[in-house]
Amino acid sequence: xxxxxxxxxxxxxxxxxxxxxxxxxxxxxxxxxxxxxxxxxxxxxxxxxxxxxxxxxxxxxxxxxxxxxxxxxxxxxxxxxxxxxxxxxxxxxxxxxxxxxxxxxxxxxxxxxxxxxxxxxxxxxxxxxxxxxxxxxxxxxxxxxxxxxxxxxxxxxxxxxxxxxxxxxxxxxxxxxxxxxxxxxxxxxxxxxxxxxxxxxxxxxxxxxxxxxxxxxxxxxxxxxxxxxxxxxxxxxxxxxxxxxxxxxxxxxxxxxxxxxxxxxxxxxxxxxxxxxxxxxxxxxxxxxxxxxxxxxxxxxxxxxxxxxxxxxxxxxxxxxxxxxxxxxxxxxxxxxxxxxxxxxxxxxxxxxxxxxxxxxxxxxxxxxxxxxxxxxxxxxxxxxxxxxxxxxxxxxxxxxxxxxxxxxxxxxxxxxxxxxxxxxxxxxxxxxxxxxxxxxxxxxxxxxxxxxxxxxxxxxxxxxxxxxxxxxxxxxxxxxxxxxxxxxxxxxxxxxxxxxxxxxxxxxxxxxxxxxxxxxxxxxxxxxxxxxxxxxxxxxxxxxxxxxxxxxxxxxxxxxxxxxxxxxxxxxxxxxxxxxxxxxxxxxxxxxxxxxxxxxxxxxxxxxxxxxxxxxxxxxxxxxxxxxxxxxxxxxxxxxxxxxxxxxxxxxxxxxxxxxxxxxxxxxxxxxxxxxxxxxxxxxxxxxxxxxxxxxxxxxxxxxxxxxxxxxxxxxxxxxxxxxxxxxxxxxxxxxxxxxxxxxxxxxxxxxxxxxxxxxxxxxxxxxxxxxxxxxxxxxxxxxxxxxxxxxxxxxxxxxxxxxxxxxxxxxxxxxxxxxxxxxxxxxxxxxxxxxxxxxxxxxxxxxxxxxxxxxxxxxxxxxxxxxxxxxxxxxxxxxxxxxxxxxxxxxxxxxxxxxxxxxxxxxxxxxxxxxxxxxxxxxxxxxxxxxxxxxxxxxxxxxxxxxxxxxxxxxxxxxxxxxxxxxxxxxxxxxxx
Length: 979
Known about the structure:
Residues 238-455 form the Rap-GAP domain. This protein is an alpha+beta fold.
């Protein structure tokens, strides 16, 4: 996905700027679609300039620096990393394309989404090459029944929901292994499709069928409980239901077009192609002889050459692909319409149209010229001999949901193998997306409805007649419970037969080629965007919470104390185990450490200076400096006594803001210095608890379960009139509270009758409009702040109930205590799941950091590790043992997923982009009379891939901070001021 920032600018003090800096010429009108790049202000400083004067002109200085943006690093790197700024329109704009008959008369029109890489004409906003193409909803991730159930002992139920609609439920208890602990996997089969979910398993406390069903939407209230099916033949029926999800293998049409040809009859009448055509066909796959072909044939004849003698075939990540190549299908001189060719190509969901003659010919293509109601996606390709490149434009019928990967800008590929991989992934994703159009989804729903009704009647009839293996009916409340002892032998015999039949079905499915069994591919070797890097291979304590400190340190709270972990080198204790920390934040912009310690009435927020925890010149810290409970007294915010949680504004704003939850009231507080003022006067910002000033108290109806500060891109300090808000989650709903007025407005309610477990509220921006991603249970809901009526158009569901959510565009990641699930935020499609025992998200302020005890999944670092300065070992040989744990216990490894890898960039960018905050009260104006709204902007922002950013001003550290990426931008970037 390409991210576009909509920024605001101003030149209202231009005259004063001209007087001081000389005539800078005409200032162009600010294009809100463009980002700014501001270099260091040091080159503009003159003797006699004071900070107040510069503060009053910072908007004008940004305008001046726009002229230098072309010499800076491309804005693309910055844009795709910004938190929450995206546009679904980057996947094409919908256009009405008229269809004409041969006589030139209009017949009817169809609407197509056109992807041509132009991105609304803002080419400089798009990165030059595509991010790693990934398959969406891959079968080896989504075909649960085949992968997790078939051939294993599991239970199947049949019943009717509250609307008397038939359904089937399959439940399996996954055994504990080296990857993760035991868990339930459940599939609910309904006419609308299969819904899947993973649920935690508690030893000696099996879940009931009711409890499992209650985790699915609209399944809490049933008139009658479902009945268990013991017949092993049910496995064959359920496998048939799963096959309705779509094909494992694919067939794509490939049509050759000469210059001047406009109709499908003309295109299909080409008996031979050009050398460029032959070169393109050989790039797609291998030319195979059809007669005697024993692999996937894509509907072609393999006995008597009835569909031609040869074709083109390939495999990509376990998917077999047969291309229906127009010049290889039977040609008839007497048949103008070439029915034999049209019969195959016209019935393919996705077609490739190859234009001979270069890019100029591509613009003449109109998808309505292909007379097929079945084909929904057209990939238009041409070869450009001048620069030895391929160009691509994609047309998708309007009803086809968005699918990736999005095209680069311009859509030019100069490496043939990279183009091949991008094209194949785009074609596969396009066909899967087309299955969700009304043309196919309605047909699939009718098929599923018929199958489920028939199966319901069949199995309910057998039960009423007592037919089948009905041994030892389990109670309704039991799932996978042990059978009574007296019938154990018969039960075990039935289980053995059940598993045997399932294994036979699995083998038969594999032999027929209807199941994904291999990830073998003819594509390029590539690293997954979410590939992890070992940050620290041997950490001996279970993580409670933590945050990143700069680019190379973590501050981690555990039950045994708080530690500072250096990247691959050492960890040292800074607080002892008498201090129980539940929340923790590192705010580099002001050089402070925030944390919430203890619980209940004793819980308070404490503030320390980061400089207090710097190691000495040898990289060590004396054990005498390990702080105890006695050291907290002078660092606690008394007003926060009894707080249940707190949230801070994402770094990048003009001021650090904090909201604290105390029962049924919220306290709003703000740091007395702005980030910009701290950057200018780092030696003066040395406050701890005195740095926070109380703004106001807001009463709420219930005690919140989650709170998120939502920054407005049109806040007062950005020249707008909007206010920042607080999103508050209660038991069954989300509300929005105006920070300035305290006014509460209802945002979204969880559907009645649904058990609500609120997970997160992440603020996003789509096309400059603020939006919240509200996560509850296993559902993610997009809610526009300006909309009063919620729409579920873009809602999606996880396969498990997450404990935390991280946005790292174009991906969104969900974490549980034993797995990670990765989806695309643009459409909610699954791209990867990973099992990791004892998984704990540490922070996502900058790069994503997490802990797990699964070192076998990831490569370890090659650096040498010093643990507490007492031992060293080469971690490249094998996972190290922990000096802190018993031999049978496994150490935790700390891993990092870099933002630039997720964003598809090679290296970090040097530019920053803070988000403004509203103008604070006059009482909070800075020392020296500075108005915070007119101060110089904040220092650079570090790499970030979550809902928050991090400013890299670390004046107390005594050294310059490295530069990285920002993920959010609602205002102009700001200069980095050297100390």
